[in-house]
Specification:
With about 290 residues, this protein is mainly beta. The protein is built from one helix and 23 strands. The strands form six sheets. Strands 16, 17, 18, 19 and 20 form a five-stranded antiparallel β-sheet that branches. Strands 4-5-6-7 form a four-stranded antiparallel β-sheet, with no helix packed on it. Strands 8-9-10-11 form a four-stranded antiparallel β-sheet, with no helix packed on it.
Amino acid sequence: MAAFAALPDPLTPGLNNLLVFYNNTNSNINLVKRNIDEDAKNIYKDVPGTPKGAVGNPSSLTAIRWNNLVQVFGTDTDGFVVRLSPSPQYVSSDAIVSLDVTDPTSTGIASTTDGSKAWLYFFKRGTNKITEYDLDVKNSTGLGYSPDPLSYLSATYDTDERNRWIFFQLGQDDKDGQIQAVNLDKNKSYIIPGSVNSKAQTPIAAVYANKRFYVYSVNAKGRIMRSYSVVTDKGLQFTSVSTIEGLTVGSFSQLAVSAGDGFNYLFFGSKPDTTGAFPVIDYKDPHQSKD
């Protein structure tokens, strides 16, 4: 499973540079510095001779800038939630997901930060509920939400209202696999209209930018679907999903998104080419005009 995480390069602010992290076929984390104004052809590739790493497969990746560091989190081959960069470090002895095929749960991990505090989200082993781990005080809290146990997760922070948000897929049986958005600070939930068309265990990527939430998922044909928030006389709502034509996400790939100046930048693995390689694609999705 190809996992991705992306965020602006803090060393070159204002230059449209992004740091893109992804796991490679040798269980390591690759890092590419991506200038979104330049052609991305052939920049995503493994370095020959790299020793085998300890990143789990399947895994998820999430990256935040916190404590003056770019920090990347994922799971190792034993299912522990670990900080992978800048140095390997276990998050907590009880921060562990299930890799048991007889009791499968998702290896989905998400994170967000308000600049001073930071939070991780994952499915703790032995539960079907999302755990929130406060990286600042090193404390975990079980959240009262029960997504599909195989759901991937995404999280973002509303810098205007100063609220934490998480996004996940509901069960296929009772909720038809719809995407749910939750404002954790206000304990308010929203169903993304049209997300019933999401494939089972869809990748999910969400970001807050330009005073809107943008939520991306994938349908059964591998096409990326997009919804964004609008403010109406009834308050905040989400638009029905629309399909971004011409983009196909490989069945093995997850999604990552990072906000830039006027665009969101999406990263994912596409369908294999004629050589059997899986090209990494990045795509600029324009921001919607403000309400």
